[in-house]
Amino acid sequence: MPIEEGASTVLQSRPRGGFNATATFRLRVVEGPDAGREFVLDGTQPSRVLIGTSPACAFRLSDRQISRRHASIDVVPEGLRLTDLGSTNGTWANGLCVFDVRLHGGELVRLGDNVLRVEVVAMPAEHPTTLAMRFGRLVGASPEMRRLYPLCERLAATDVPVVIEGETGTGKELLAESIHEESAREKGPFVVFDCTTVAANLLESTLFGHERGAFTGAVAARRGVFEQAHGGTLLIDEIGDLDASLQSKLLRAIERNEVQRVGGEKFVRVDVRVMAATRRDLDKEVQAGRFRDDLFYRLAVARIELPPLRERRGDVQVLGRYFWEQLGGTDKPIPEDLLRRFEEYGWPGNVRELHNAIARRLALGDLAAMERSRALDPAPSQAPGADVIKETLAMDLPFPAARQRVMNAFERGYVERVLAKHGGNVVRAAAASGIARRYFYVIKSRQRPGGQENE
Ligand SMILES: Nc1ncnc2c1ncn2[C@@H]1O[C@H](COP(=O)(O)OP(=O)(O)OP(=O)(O)O)[C@@H](O)[C@H]1O
């Protein structure tokens, strides 16, 4: 939805040919109960800034007409992305009620009785955009990644909890490990606990440990992941999958730095930095009451959203060359035509999929490339989902919901196809496609359009 610029409020005009990666934005409340308050968004901020009255919001306002989590703002290549988070009284930009909109600076945004002006200001000299091509083991030279590195460096120098969000294969675990390795805890353990891979009845004892005889089969006492990570960092992966009773136990462990083993009476002190990763939109989970507000507030002291590979400008090339060398393709450079094809592909499995595609190409040579090119470049007549696109367009959904619907259909089609090719063997199909196995199950379990799918 186009929003007109109010020229008088723009401190620095929008750069021609796209967003200037060194620009910084300021949100200033110019009218209403919070008049005078302001918030600066630049590369040193978490990627998504929440606005609302909840303490979890980075830009917290007091107006009672504003919802607890009213709207979010992301810095995107074209400027800012303003998204209403299902607020009661709506989000308005230049007089229009908006759901999800791009801002370039100069707009007037109304939330409740407050009117905010979006201003573009120059990047302060003390926050230069880094030219670094990587942070720790995380490689990437796109502006979308480079703007995250200063924040990652700052986070490595602190001990605060971090929530890392992003699609599968975007490097959430690698980023958490890199922050750990760059931090003062570097010599301590880095422990990953994935909430989706442990049976529900063993989750608590895996997290907090158990005493001997605590339950049938507990023949010896065992430390949980908190104790194992003592002196280091614990990454809780897919935290959005944790059920409510464990969420409160987790909150207690993080707040008090102590855990109680299942079947135990005493509390064990732990010194652990906690990070959490999720593919889900935690804001939505909180809003829907599935994730505790206070745990979210405690964990999301800092938030980093890793962009999908398709949105990292130039990184398919950078990572393609990097993986080619790393995986042993040192006698000749990666073929340019392969790189060109890679650049045109959408990479639903993100960096993991690119890594696997290069490993396969190096291992199998042109044979694999031919097979793969069919998948990367399907003939229009075979393109899956043409009907779904038509159907979705006819539904007049808001853009994000429509895109999600088409994406779901694509993912489902992809998974069905690769499964068929591997005789229904999920392990082999997941490995071949570069999609994490558990995400495979998630996609498979979605219903077809026309059913009760939650789009
Ligand atoms: N920027 C990067 N530079 C180098 N390697 C990367 C980068 N991002 C991801 N990788 C590699 O891609 C693979 C997937 O990364 P990782 O497991 O960290 O993703 P993830 O987001 O945690 O995935 P999932 O949500 O499926 O668990 C790993 O082999 C990792 O080393």
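^ adenosine-5'-triphosphate complex. The longest helix spans residues 399-421. Residues 138-140, 166, 168-174, 277, 279, 351-352, 355, 436, 439 surround adenosine-5'-triphosphate (CB under 6 Å).
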